[in-house]
Amino acid sequence: RPRSHTVTTTSSSFTANLSASSSTLAYDREFLRTLPGLLMVTEIVLGLLVWTLIAGTEYFLYPAFGWVMFVAVFYWVLTVFFLIIYMTMTYTRIPQVPWTTVGLCFNGSAFVLYLIAAIVDASSVTKEPDSHNYNSWAASSFFAFVVTSCYAGNTYFSFISWRSRTLQ
């Protein structure tokens, strides 16, 4: 005997909100025209240079360069992540997160750890018979200090933003 197949579908408010919110994902092109946006792009480009210059050498023989690699790669990935959050304006969709405080902590920690890594990088550069390592390490040291100054600038702007939010 034939059976009747009845299919019932229901829609929850969660799926309705999810589909509505994902279709209206914003794109903030103007962020890249601000000084913090330009600094962030510079951090990404020069941070990539720092860790690729070290990665092309025998850095694993020197523990100090392992620390520099960790800091450079870790903050490069997080900076790309934050750029995506700012470019897509995701921070407006998650108001529970204190974004000004998160930005201040991120940029402040990046500044301090990158400064330590840049100093370690510069002090570990030694002249060796293999000039490839020397040149790469010296260049990575220079760019690490430039990236450190970019994070210092973004720390300043994050502090100004955080301070104006806490005074309101």
From TrEMBL:
<feature type="transmembrane region" description="Helical">
    <location>
        <begin position="97"/>
        <end position="117"/>
    </location>
</feature>
<feature type="domain" description="MARVEL">
    <location>
        <begin position="31"/>
        <end position="163"/>
    </location>
</feature>
<dbReference type="InterPro" id="IPR013295">
    <property type="entry name" value="MAL"/>
</dbReference>
<dbReference type="Pfam" id="PF01284">
    <property type="entry name" value="MARVEL"/>
</dbReference>
<keyword id="KW-1133">Transmembrane helix</keyword>
<feature type="transmembrane region" description="Helical">
    <location>
        <begin position="35"/>
        <end position="54"/>
    </location>
</feature>
<keyword id="KW-0472">Membrane</keyword>
<feature type="transmembrane region" description="Helical">
    <location>
        <begin position="60"/>
        <end position="85"/>
    </location>
</feature>
<dbReference type="InterPro" id="IPR008253">
    <property type="entry name" value="Marvel"/>
</dbReference>
<keyword id="KW-0812">Transmembrane</keyword>
<dbReference type="GO" id="GO:0042552">
    <property type="term" value="P:myelination"/>
</dbReference>
<feature type="transmembrane region" description="Helical">
    <location>
        <begin position="137"/>
        <end position="159"/>
    </location>
</feature>
<protein>
    <submittedName>
        <fullName>CKLF8 protein</fullName>
    </submittedName>
</protein>
<dbReference type="InterPro" id="IPR050578">
    <property type="entry name" value="MARVEL-CKLF_proteins"/>
</dbReference>
<dbReference type="GO" id="GO:0019911">
    <property type="term" value="F:structural constituent of myelin sheath"/>
</dbReference>
<dbReference type="GO" id="GO:0016020">
    <property type="term" value="C:membrane"/>
</dbReference>
